[in-house]
Amino acid sequence: MPAALRAARRADLIETIFAARSRPSAAFSRRLAHPGLAQEAEGRLEQARATLESAFVADSKSRYPRDLTRIAETAKDYQGALGYLAHARELQPADASLPYEFGSICLKLVSMQSRGRPLRRQ
């Protein structure tokens, strides 16, 4: 805590400053998203996912769930992709491409799960 503020006993001002510093903003979110998208382009999917998740926490009304869906799908984490897609649907309920994307990811998930099962004899 700065000495000048302590001396002035301005606890309300100090609390406001610290609250503003700890509260993420939309601008902060956008600054985080750019490196996340660059990391995705470089193929560093886990880093990109972590960066964009931080950006989404900072701005929960953003379009980052769509980006996170794409990254999770590329990494073949289909269940994670469905989770991000659910967030995207909450944010954009009128987006007609979301049900299509949901179906596409579900098919990939079922296909992946069926490849892991032994073939049944008839």
Strand content: under 5%
Could you give the count of β-strands?
Answer: 0
Regarding quaternary structure, how should these chains be classified? single chain
List the uncertain runs: none
How far apart are the first and last residues' alpha carbons, in Å?
75 Å
The helix count comes to: 7
Rg (C-alpha, Å): 21 Å
How would you spell out the order of helices and strands? HHHHHHH
Average of the residue pLDDT scores: 77
What is the general shape?
Answer: flat
How many strands, what sense, and barrel or not for the largest sheet?
none
- Tell me the structural class: mainly alpha
Helix content: over 70%
Structure in words:
With 122 residues, the protein is mostly helical. It is 75% helix and 0% strand. It has 7 helices and no strands. The chain has helices at 3-8, 11-22, 26-41, 45-58, 64-74, 78-91, 97-115. Helix 3 packs antiparallel against helix 4, helix 4 (45-58) packs antiparallel against helix 5 and helix 5 runs antiparallel to helix 6. It starts with a helix and ends in a 7-residue tail after the last helix.
Task: Compile the SSE list and pairings.
Blueprint: H1 3-8, H2 11-22, H3 26-41, H4 45-58, H5 64-74, H6 78-91, H7 97-115
Summary, kept brief:
By secondary structure, the chain is mainly α. The protein is built from seven helices and no strands. It has helices spanning 3-8, 11-22, 26-41, 45-58, 64-74, 78-91, 97-115.
